[in-house]
Specification:
By secondary structure, the protein is an alpha/beta fold. The chain is built from 9 helices and 16 strands. Strands 6-16-15-10-11-12-13-9 form an 8-stranded mixed beta sheet.
Amino acid sequence: MPVRYPRPLRPGDRVGVSAPSSGVATELRERLNVAVRHVEAHGYEVVLGRCLDGSGHVSASAADRAGELMSMLTDPAIRAVVPPWGGETAIDLIPLLDWNRLREAEPTWLVGFSDISTLMTPLTLLTGTATLHGNNLLETPYRVPEGLLSWLDIVAAPPGHRFTQTPPGRHRAAGFDDFAVFPDAREYKLDARGTWVRLDGGGAVEAEGRLIGGCIETLCNLAGSPWLDVTAFARDTSPEGLLVYVEAAEHDAFTICRNLHGMRLAGFFDRANAVLVGRTGAPDSSSLSQHEAVLDALGSLGVPIIADLECGHVPPYMPIVNGARGRVVHSSSRSELTQTLD
């Protein structure tokens, strides 16, 4: 099963907006409008779905959310689907999606992170369709720091395109902008310094493999199921191995440690040539830090573990394409992740 890349977006193409998990509260609708106008300014037509209600923890019933996502992903006129953000229970869509139909349909970009990992990662694993773990729609208007890209840059890239991202050296220490008060926010407050760090020891790292991964708290619930068979994906698309990335959203270090142990026991990391870990603002526990939780669960893999990448819930964001060929380099003088769409 080769990896399938959606064709590059061109001006005039349609971008669908639907919330497979949480919708947008009334007081945040102006931020949604700002984000839509930002995408339109790139030349795209934005199609708003019906599943956007933010009055509860999900935007609509599971059947309606699954139906709208299926419709957008199989509509040849819609070239990308971008949720407003993540949420809590996108897992309820898993048994309702027609995976065979998605496998047969022309590939469409699915973009997002957090709870959207629950859908994107299985979509890549089961259908071979590349998906884009990157900033959600409501974060899209922010200016991208030097060294990083926006999902808008990647979905317009041609087949075979190669791009390299590097850490900007600054991130947001805590908190988020209140979009109800500042709907037009476009500048991150990057008030803390920091770059990537190797957790498993010293020395430079160079590793390659297809990229796959996502949010720990959501993917751990699929571990061991047919929807998260990373071993089969590696066998079919990347026998040389994988670059597996994970990131913690909010759970304490004890919980993340248990989650990662479970994912390891289920084979999620079996074909990893290296593990990349997103920077997190999630709390440490009384006798275990977030970094220590990763090492406790994954140190026995015997592969490099590089932490504090910009692929988590701490702004800014480094988009990663599930299914792309990746090459990570990390040393005292150089850190970069190169992705190739082939």
